[in-house]
Design brief:
Blueprint lengths: L4 E3 L6 H12 L7 E7 L2 E7 L14 E2 L5 H13 L9 H5 L7 H4 L3 H5 L12 H5 L13 H9 L15 H15 L3 H10 L7 E2 L28 H4 L2 E2 L1 H11 L13 H9 L5 E3 L5 E3 L4 E3 L6 E7 L4 E7 L4 E7 L9 H10 L3
Antiparallel strand pairs: 1-3, 2-3, 2-12, 4-6, 5-6, 7-8, 8-9, 9-10, 10-11, 11-12
Helix pairs in contact: 2-9, 2-12, 7-8
Length: 356
């Protein structure tokens, strides 16, 4: 690993955090790696990797978040609810296609069901796979556009009654995105920018690739480059790209940080939304041991509950997490396709749960 920088080590104790991050980085094999920690707003950033650093510092490059995009969708929904524009109990089909005949189970699916993976929908539409398999390692999503996602939802036959079982679903969260766009008359990308990215000062976060040279390049396990991700109609479920520093800003907002632009109190609807997505909401798994909020996995730790979400694309990985009781946030990114023996998520999770 090549250690490039430890940024903002500006208080006693941050040097210890820098050493911790450097040690953790040694457990991860990736061409580009960023481990970033914020402790009560004081940031320590370690960058490294097996590849030579390029002209853009790694912490300023845009990384694909994959499923770690879902907390952004969750915060958007929570803010629209706080503004009174939609309700969690609103039925998705009624907003997306009023009057269209759908299966009775589809009619019962609410916005909350879509976001919390309790809609009864599968992980992806059944007809997704025939077009995706021939290009599974290069572009599985790009050939499945938004209108096809919507049609698949309207003709779906949920596997379980909505609200009764937890089943992780990129399909469901994608439908949520299209439903919110229909309900507000605003394209998803614009809506996310207006309601989440701009208010939080996330100027280096987007849902499309940035200018040439601004984004990290994903890698296969053998190190060969992977094309930039095209999420097709699944934008809400996995299209967000962000720099590690913007990821810290996003997480710090969940810890109660001030508006990054002028330190004034946040808009009340945004504050309400940030509180709402932190609140434990449901349990799943064996003996219902795992707790979830609207959008975050919620686990216990020796230092209080931790909230987190991981994501992976064809050649990149991301981890976001925070510990509300102690003001700790961890953001991690890497450029290498995930594999069974991969240590990236475990390493990032350890930084979140094992240090005081």
């Amino acid at each position: 690993m090549t250690d490039v920088t430890a940024a903002r080590v500006d208080v006693p104790g941050s040097a210890a955090t820098a050493r911790l991050l450097a040690e953790a980085a040694g457990a991860v094999d990736a061409p580009d790696l960023v481990l970033a920690v914020s402790r009560n707003g004081v940031r320590t950033v370690h960058t490294g990797g097996s590849a030579e650093p390029g002209p853009v510092p790694r912490e300023l490059m845009g990384y694909e978040l994959g499923s770690a995009s879902k907390p952004y969708a969750g915060l958007l929904l929570a803010r629209l609810v706080a503004q009174g524009r939609v309700r969690y109990a609103d039925r998705a089909a009624d907003l997306l296609a009023p009057g269209f005949p759908v299966h009775p189970a589809v009619r019962r699916i609410t916005l909350r069901h879509l976001l919390t993976h309790t809609s009864g929908l599968p992980g992806l539409p059944a007809d997704f796979y025939p077009q995706a398999v021939p290009r599974w390692s290069t572009d599985p999503y790009g050939g499945y556009p938004a209108d096809r996602v919507v049609r698949a939802f309207l003709r779906a036959r949920p596997r379980h009654r909505p609200g009764t079982r937890w089943h992780y679903s990129n399909f469901a969260v994608s439908v949520l995105g299209h439903t919110l766009a229909a309900a507000t008359g605003t394209p998803w990308e614009v809506l996310l920018h207006q309601q989440v990215l701009a208010p939080l000062g996330l100027d280096a976060t987007r849902v499309r690739p940035g200018p040439e040279g601004a984004d990290a390049v994903g890698r296969r396990r053998d190190g060969t480059p992977v094309p930039a991700l095209d999420t097709g109609g699944f934008t809400a479920a996995g299209a967000v790209r962000a720099t590690p520093l913007d990821l810290l800003t996003f997480l710090e907002a969940h810890l109660g940080g001030p508006d990054p632009r002028d330190a004034t109190p946040r808009d009340p609807t945004l504050s309400a939304a940030l509180a709402d997505v932190r609140r434990p909401l449901l349990r799943r798994g064996r003996r219902h041991a795992h707790t979830h909020t609207l959008t975050w996995f919620h686990h216990p730790s020796p230092y209080g509950p931790v909230l987190f979400h991981a994501g992976a694309t064809l050649g990149q990985q991301a981890f976001l997490g925070f510990r509300p009781d102690t003001g700790l946030a961890v953001a991690a990114t890497a450029t290498r396709r995930v594999h069974r023996a991969d240590t990236f998520v475990a390493t990032a999770y350890g930084l979140l749960t094992e240090s005081p």
